[in-house]
Amino acid sequence: MDLRGKVAVVTGSGRGLGRAYAEALAQAGAAVVVNDVDAEAASTVVKAIEEDGGRAVAVVAPVGPTETADRLVATAVEEFGGLDVMVTNAGILRDKVLWKMSDADFDAVVDVHLRGTFTCARAAAVRMREQGRGGSLVLISSPAGQRGNFGQTNYAAAKAGIVAMARTWAMELARAEISVNAVVPVAATEMTKTIPAFGPVIEEAERTGTPFPEWLRKDEGLGTVEDVASLIVFLASDAARSVTGQAIGIGGDRLALWSHPQEKAVAFADGGWSADAIAESWETGVGASPETYGIPAPNPPAA
Predict the structure, then answer these.
(1) Catalytic pick among 159, 179, 218, 281
(2) Residue 247 confidence class, pLDDT cut points 50, 70, 90
(3) Is residue 275 part of a domain?
(4) Which of 89, 156, 263, 285 has its CA 20 to 30 A from that of 59?
(5) Which long-range contacts (CB under 8 A, 24 or more apart) does 207-214 make?
(6) Do 63 and 116 meet the contact criterion of CB atoms below 8 Å apart?
(7) What's the pTM?
(8) Catalytic site includes residue 155
(9) Which pLDDT tens digit goes with each residue over 209-218?
């Protein structure tokens, strides 16, 4: 995949998935603006990209404020002459069950994930429309946003909102030939190491250098951060110019297209529905096959 001549911004790219995205884009030829709140981490990524023959510059700033979004876009323009790809990856976690989650816990996560995606995408869209050559917005969501997850009210809500914004912006930016897609990644990170079924397997693979087992890569769709990065490169490329408004999952050996929410079952009552009528018909009518919720528990094979 050839991204020479393209310029990309990747938020939260000092480590983990974000770093993998930035390095993969650079390896494909794009110039990259690396962003993180950790100056040392951002500098390390820039150095690695440059040592590999790529071009990169760091912007150390928290994602969320409009000022940061404007600075990221301005840096791309000043350093590399324009902007073609915005990857909104930055995020934090403040996991707690509903009755223990504080206003500060909720606001911090929503500010970085949801507001940060909004401000960075808006700044990028303004610049891309001015340039008149199209572009790509790649918004990072999560399985938690698609299905919900215990203890993640703030994170799941923000990640679900990101997919909704992708669908909305795909319509609004179509005329400007700017594609907008949400990516739903699953990869071995510090967060997934905390899952009891995954942690020992991930740590063993890292310790010995052996590949993840097939059940993890295929059945659970979990692999390395590099496995996910290939989708980011594709969506940044000209090969994906017609792909927009989609939520695309990737992890391990699995690539998936998530469905859009839609009516699953419909029933009609002349003159409208009373509460009693709904109750009487629910289990044999529209409620006969309720939807599941929550991320399915990992199911490793028996030893």
Answers:
(1) 159
(2) very high
(3) no
(4) 156
(5) 212/188, 212/252
(6) yes
(7) 0.94
(8) yes
(9) 888 888 889 9
293 is catalytic: no
Q: What is the CATH number of the domain that holds 36?
A: 3.40.50.720
By residue range, what is the domain housing residue 28? Answer: 7-187+224-258
Catalytic residue among 6, 141, 155, 179: 155
6 is catalytic: no
SS3 per residue for 175-205 = CCCEEEEEEEECECCCCHHHCCCCHHHHHHH
Task: Convert the pLDDT of each residue in 89-134 to its tens digit.
Answer: 999 999 999 999 999 999 999 999 999 999 999 999 999 999 999 9
Residues forming a β-bridge with 138: 87, 181
286: tokens are: 């529209």
pLDDT of residue 192: 73
Alpha carbons within 13 A on the beta-carbon side of 284: 3
Instruction: Tell me whether residue 212 is in a domain.
Output: no
Q: Which tokens belong to 93? A: 């976690």
Catalytic one of 141, 142, 179, 237: 142
Looking at the 3D structure of the chain, how many domains does it have?
A: 1
Q: Is residue 111 part of a domain?
A: yes
Percent of the chain whose pLDDT exceeds 90: 85
Answer whether residue 294 is part of any domain: no
Asked if residue 303 has pLDDT above 70, the reply is no
Residue-wise DSSP of 76-101: HHHHHS---EEEE-------B-GGG-
